[in-house]
């Protein structure tokens, strides 16, 4: 247990390391400032105070962490291991304060030291260890796992550079390196004693050992060392503190001058640098070909370290390897960690000498796979030559899995060679490729999609043959988000109203928000609700002014679309509507137009030219519209740069309208849609992803629906979609496209937007023009509703009231009960 420093401690006072009252916190901060930061308070910078406070909060987590480790060590249990190449955990200080329940005391403690808590919260660098939805989902799940007291470990990569920071220069996105570790990370613990070697390259040798068993030796060309770097993940008001274990790559042996002659020395330095490159940088999605080889190496690196770590934990508990699947339930967050299936076989067969059949049974009982996309271009494959070159032994194992699997298929469907071709783990058309989604499916006992519609489509399309073979293995687990971060922490004004109206229990049982329904027509409650919303909009307006210089009116309708920029997410559909609205206002066709502020945020993959052009279109339209005096401030457009978790805290609580307008069938779930809803925004959306379930929960009167359904999209495609027809029969659409093509939003340059406009007019792969007219009509219904504040407020209240299903606690309960079969373990703190 930690020692108890007595800095300024009075008789009987709480410890400066663990006490939760304001005085103990104050002493803790002083102690850490002097002893850890090495600063005299008189010379301390804001960063020093932040660090001292972070360490003080961390101290409080450590005894819970220790109690959790001990609690797990002394009990029979099963551990959920969440394998993910991304964990977008966001800033930690505020969340840890909230989960410990010491926000008020900490505020008071800092005030007594002359420091403002909010200022300190604002200077924290967030770990941007993810691209978007998938990485943030993993972080929400860690919060729920700990809150629900479920034994769990998150396994991933400690990238030195996370997702790039986005700046807007001259209307275009510019990428800036994310140096999140520059000033140190107070939340991580490097564990040099927990490290493993990972092999790459070389060749394999087959032999028969003394006992006559067939053995394979992988003679690798190089090895990299992975060192554990842990971050504590504390649950809300419980003692459970799980670990997020991220692997950092290092050179196997730090090179030693004396071991090399001059030539070898430089080679040794080179090798060292190459090893350390492995965990250097997070790859953006939608990046064709980018760093292919290194990305596969990253995946194998963190997966191998994680499985070796599980074996170490098993050995430490003196459990036989045969009990691996009883001890661990491993969830694969998309196919990125799916090489784990072959790696576990390798560890069990090659290193632990288990027979193949037993290793295979263990493997399939251990893994479950979550799919996050149906887009064919986003399904992960790796060229066989690259695979063989980097991971020769793993390719052999995949071939063997495939051989046995296809035998099984042949027995079920004799002579059906086209089925064999479709289901094979190897795509043999053209250059041979390993299909990672097939590997993940064959090697798992459970496969799930992330929203009801997505799971249905998954069974009908991408994994159809597999669902036919093993229907009992297919599940749906609709995504969820954590109300701790996305209401309690980021919308304190709303949280206060919720506490008062439905009781504090909503934080861990979000379905209690249903009690708000009783107040949906209560006019005094409406006033309170609107005061909260108005406050949040003022806060966001202030941020927008500080960051972009644009002044927006908090009384305008805040119409917000924040998410990664992608053609399927259709930010350009939104932009086309804005151009239409602008034209109407210029013509003084004012009837039905309400003051609106359109806010966009999101990053484009650096190599995705069309997405970058979509950003340019938004900033181009913004420049023209915002500076047109005839608009009289009725229309404002903002591109809020660098949308990340920190900025998200300001955005969701301030939204009136949530834009969820992807082409039906393309967005697996969406999770921003849920964050908006629980903060009282109303959705305008297509029947895509979790929108379908949001609409079911909230009722059709409280959701603005438009557009083709997934089935209709397929039908239109089959019947031959001709976008030009849509342009011909819609004068406003034609005008909007001509204005864009004519250089009106690009300072007269007619070339810039050509690729965008031509793609829409010629092929329009995401049916933007097909949905345009219905979208415009739907936005008119939005305007009508906005003009009736009572009606709008009622809808807003009902959206929050009916968002209970979308808590990540519900999702994690479903994974625990149905897929992992893990029950909670209560952790006690052995002190008064
Ligand atoms: C793959 C290979 C090489 C480099 C990068 C990648 C890569 C990285 C990240 C591919 C995809 C991603 C991220 C995908 C993602 O965020 N998907 C979203 O997941 C959410 C959580 O389930 C869903 O809500 C969204 O609908 C889905 O788009």
UniProtKB/TrEMBL annotation:
Phosphorylase is an important allosteric enzyme in carbohydrate metabolism. Enzymes from different sources differ in their regulatory mechanisms and in their natural substrates. However, all known phosphorylases share catalytic and structural properties. This is Alpha-1,4 glucan phosphorylase. The lineage of its organism: Bacteria, Pseudomonadati, Pseudomonadota, Betaproteobacteria, Burkholderiales. Keywords: Carbohydrate metabolism, Glycogen metabolism, Glycosyltransferase, Phosphoprotein, Pyridoxal phosphate, Transferase. Belongs to the glycogen phosphorylase family. One of its GO terms (cellular component) is cytoplasm. Its cofactor is pyridoxal 5'-phosphate. PROSITE patterns: PHOSPHORYLASE (PS00102). One of its GO terms (biological process) is glycogen catabolic process. The keyword ATP-binding does not apply. It catalyses: [(1->4)-alpha-D-glucosyl](n) + phosphate = [(1->4)-alpha-D-glucosyl](n-1) + alpha-D-glucose 1-phosphate. It comes from the Bacteria. Coiled coil: none annotated. Its EC number is 2.4.1.1. The modification N6-(pyridoxal phosphate)lysine is found at residue 675. One of its GO terms (molecular function) is glycogen phosphorylase activity. NCBIfam families: P_ylase.
């Amino acid at each position: 247990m930690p020692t108890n420093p007595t800095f300024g401690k009075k008789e009987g006072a709480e410890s400066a390391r663990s006490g939760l009252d304001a005085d103990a916190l104050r002493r803790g901060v002083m102690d850490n400032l002097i002893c850890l930061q090495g600063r005299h308070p008189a010379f301390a910078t804001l960063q020093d105070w932040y660090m001292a406070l972070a360490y003080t909060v961390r101290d409080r987590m450590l005894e819970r962490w220790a109690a959790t480790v001990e609690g797990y060590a002394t009990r029979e249990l099963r551990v959920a291991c969440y394998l993910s190449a991304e964990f977008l955990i966001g800033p930690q200080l505020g969340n840890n304060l909230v989960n410990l329940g010491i926000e008020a005391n900490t505020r008071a403690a800092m005030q007594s030291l002359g420091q403002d808590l909010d200022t300190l919260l604002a200077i924290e660098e967030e770990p941007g260890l993810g691209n978007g939805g998938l990485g943030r989902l993993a972080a929400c799940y860690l919060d729920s796992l700990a809150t629900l007291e479920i034994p769990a470990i998150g396994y991933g990569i400690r990238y030195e550079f996370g997702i790039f920071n986005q700046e807007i220069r001259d209307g275009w996105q510019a990428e800036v390196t994310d140096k999140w570790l520059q000033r140190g990370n107070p939340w991580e613990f490097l564990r040099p004693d927990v490290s493993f070697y990972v092999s790459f390259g070389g060749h394999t040798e087959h032999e028969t050992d003394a006992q006559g068993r067939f053995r394979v030796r992988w003679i690798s060309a190089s090895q990299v060392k992975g060192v554990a770097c842990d971050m504590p993940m504390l649950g809300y008001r419980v003692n459970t503190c799980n670990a997020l274990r991220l692997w950092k790559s290092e050179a196997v042996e730090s090179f030693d001058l004396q071991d090399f002659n001059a030539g070898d020395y430089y080679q040794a330095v080179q090798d060292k640098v190459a090893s350390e490159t492995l965990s250097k940088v997070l790859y953006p999605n939608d990046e064709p070909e980018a760093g292919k080889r290194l990305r596969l190496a990253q995946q194998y690196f963190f997966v191998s370290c994680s499985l070796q770590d599980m074996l170490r934990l098993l050995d430490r508990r003196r459990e036989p390897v045969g009990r691996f699947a009883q001890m661990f339930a491993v969830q694969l967050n998309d196919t990125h960690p799916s090489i784990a299936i072959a790696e576990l076989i390798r560890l069990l067969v090659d290193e632990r000498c288990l027979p193949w059949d037993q290793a295979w049974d263990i493997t399939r009982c251990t893994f479950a796979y979550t799919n996050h996309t149906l887009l064919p271009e986003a399904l992960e494959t790796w060229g066989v030559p690259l695979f063989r070159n980097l991971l020769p032994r793993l390719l052999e194992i995949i071939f063997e899995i495939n051989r046995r699997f296809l035998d099984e298929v042949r027995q079920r469907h004799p002579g059906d060679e086209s089925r064999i071709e479709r289901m094979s783990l190897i795509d043999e058309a053209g250059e041979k490729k390993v299909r990672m989604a097939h590997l993940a499916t064959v090697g798992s006992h459970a496969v799930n999609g992330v929203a009801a519609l997505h799971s249905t489509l998954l069974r009908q399309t991408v994994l159809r043959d597999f669902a036919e073979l093993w229907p009992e293995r297919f599940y749906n687990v609709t995504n969820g988000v954590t109300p701790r971060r996305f209401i309690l922490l980021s919308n304190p004004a709303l949280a206060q109203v919720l506490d008062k109206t439905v009781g504090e229990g909503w934080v861990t049982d979000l379905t209690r928000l249903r009690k708000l329904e009783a107040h949906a027509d209560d006019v005094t409650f409406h006033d309170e609700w609107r005061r909260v919303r108005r406050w949040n909009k003022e806060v966001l307006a202030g941020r927008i002014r500080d960051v972009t210089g644009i002044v927006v009116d908090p009384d305008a309708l805040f119409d917000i679309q924040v998410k990664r920029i992608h053609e399927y997410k259709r930010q350009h559909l939104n932009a086309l509507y804005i151009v239409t609205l602008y034209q109407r206002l210029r013509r003084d066709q004012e009837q039905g137009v309400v003051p609106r502020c359109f806010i966009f945020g999101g990053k484009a993959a650096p190599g995705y030219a069309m997405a970058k052009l979509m950003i340019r279109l938004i900033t181009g339209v913004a420049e023209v519209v915002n500076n047109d005096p005839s608009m009289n401030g009725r229309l404002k457009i903002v591109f809020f740069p660098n949308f990340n978790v920190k900025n998200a805290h300001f955005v969701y609580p301030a939204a009136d309208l949530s834009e969820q307008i992807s082409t039906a069938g393309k967005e697996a779930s969406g999770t921003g849609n849920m964050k908006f809803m629980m903060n009282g925004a109303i959705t305008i959306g297509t029947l895509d992803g979790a929108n379908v379930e949001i609409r079911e929960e909230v009722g059709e009167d409280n959701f603005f629906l438009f557009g083709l359904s997934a089935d209709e999209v397929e039908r239109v495609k089959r019947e031959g979609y001709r976008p030009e027809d849509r342009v011909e029969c819609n004068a406003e659409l034609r005008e909007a496209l001509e204005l864009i093509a004519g250089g009106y939003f690009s300072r007269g340059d007619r070339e810039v937007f050509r690729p965008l406009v031509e793609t829409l007019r010629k092929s329009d792969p995401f049916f933007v023009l097909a949905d345009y007219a219905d979208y415009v009509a739907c936005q008119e219904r939005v305007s009508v509703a906005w003009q009736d504040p009572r009606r709008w407020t009622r809808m807003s209240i009902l959206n929050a009231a009916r968002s209970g299903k979308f808590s990540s606690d519900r999702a994690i309960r479903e994974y625990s009960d149905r897929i992992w079969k893990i029950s909670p373990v209560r952790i006690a703190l052995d002190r008064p």
